[in-house]
UniProtKB/TrEMBL annotation:
<dbReference type="InterPro" id="IPR011719">
    <property type="entry name" value="CHP02058"/>
</dbReference>
<dbReference type="InterPro" id="IPR037103">
    <property type="entry name" value="Tubulin/FtsZ-like_C"/>
</dbReference>
<keyword id="KW-0342">GTP-binding</keyword>
<dbReference type="GO" id="GO:0005525">
    <property type="term" value="F:GTP binding"/>
</dbReference>
<protein>
    <submittedName>
        <fullName>Uncharacterized protein</fullName>
    </submittedName>
</protein>
<keyword id="KW-0547">Nucleotide-binding</keyword>
<dbReference type="Pfam" id="PF09585">
    <property type="entry name" value="Lin0512_fam"/>
</dbReference>
């Protein structure tokens, strides 16, 4: 128990958000990977080391959630690879956007852009 009577255990450390798009080919896995990388790139978790004394970043537990069109098409294993540390639990839900873009037959048979949104919550055990 922490000073003041607060229970110890699994606690949220940070919540971060990101977006990603696949401009050609409607590849929702690519869009989701980009959203994850975007979220990861917005944070430096120095408090884990400087304040909490964490020595192994793989001690983190990360709950990741992606909203995108066609969630059933997402390769979850590939998306999880975008998160460099920790034990990752990924949930993919309907969301994001599709918008018409530029049709380039050399790249894809469609002109649709798919956009994914990601949220990462980092948990630590105190």
């Amino acid at each position: 128990m922490l000073e003041g009577g607060e229970d110890v255990g699994r606690k949220r450390f940070i919540i971060e958000f990101g977006t990603g798009a696949d401009l050609h080919g409607e590849d929702v896995t690519k869009a989701a990977q980009k959203a994850m990388k975007d979220a990861v790139s917005h944070s430096c978790l120095c408090g884990l080391v400087d304040i909490l004394g964490m020595t192994d970043p793989n001690e983190m537990e990360i709950e990741a959630k992606v909203g995108c069109p066609y969630p059933e098409r997402v390769n979850k294993e590939e998306v999880i690879k975008a998160i460099p540390f920790g034990t990752v639990h990924l949930e993919v839900v309907p969301g994001g956007l599709t918008v018409p873009g530029l049709k380039l037959p050399l790249l894809a048979e469609t002109d649709m852009i798919v956009i994914a949104v990601a949220a990462l919550t980092v948990y630590i055990d105190l």
